[in-house]
Amino acid sequence: MRRSDYEVLQLQTNNMALVWKESRGIAPDSVADKLDDAMLKWMSELTDTLKIWIDKGSTMTEGELILARTNMGALVESWLKFFYCVYYEDYMKNPLTQNKKGKTITVEPNNMRFEDLKNFSKGILWDDDKDPLYVWVDKIQHYRNAVHAFNYGNIGTAIEFMADMEEFYKYVNHILDHLPPIEDFLLSYPAGYVMNVYFD
Predict the structure, then answer these.
(1) In the beta sheet, which residues pair with residue 98?
(2) 97 - beta bridge partners?
(3) For the whole model, what pTM was predicted?
(4) What is the mean pLDDT of the chain?
């Protein structure tokens, strides 16, 4: 039986967390060091939490929608940080830098702000700021940021959130499609890894 898009997302996220935590000896040490420190389990748990908002659907209160937007925004940002940690050595060839007190400082990918991640990804994960995926990520960032303000900010509607879930599935697949196939180099799959995420 075919799993729902949400069930596939859960399994894809959990598989990602499991295999990349086993990357030492396959990926460069610098990448394994980054991923050792990354809370990939939190990404899985935040993905599990999306089910709360999916189940509520159009009946979400504004308070629930705020939490849903925060949940999705955190995941969109985390997937970008994860991507650049996986490609850490490539990233370090041309990293984001900041000028602090007259010194040029390299910004580690796990410390990049959402805005920096989104713009740094032009020409890497999307073409430019007109690319539909960039436009969608920008919207998710603004919704997520709006919930932190004391004053009113536009966070869309529950119906729009559900539509954004459909885009989120595509977004995660887009990032997964750009990752190296670490599974091909594992001697065995970690406990909990699901081989076929689409059918049970």
Answers:
(1) 105
(2) 106
(3) 0.95
(4) 94
CB 75 within 8 A of CB 51: no
Task: Return the biggest CA–CA distance within the chain.
Answer: 60
User: Each residue of 127-143: pLDDT tens digit?
Assistant: 999 999 999 999 999 99
Q: Find the length of the chain.
A: 200
DSSP code for 96: -
Tokens of 100: 């602090």
> Which band of pLDDT confidence, cut at 50, 70 and 90, is reported for residue 110?
very high
Q: Which residues have CB under 8 Å from 164's CB, separation 6+?
A: 72, 136, 139, 140, 156
Q: How far is CA 167 from the centre of its chain?
A: 13
Question: Of all helices (H) and strands (E), which one includes residue 46?
Answer: helix 40-56
Here the tokens at position 198 are: 């689409």
Q: Looking up tokens 């990520």, which residue turns up?
A: 137
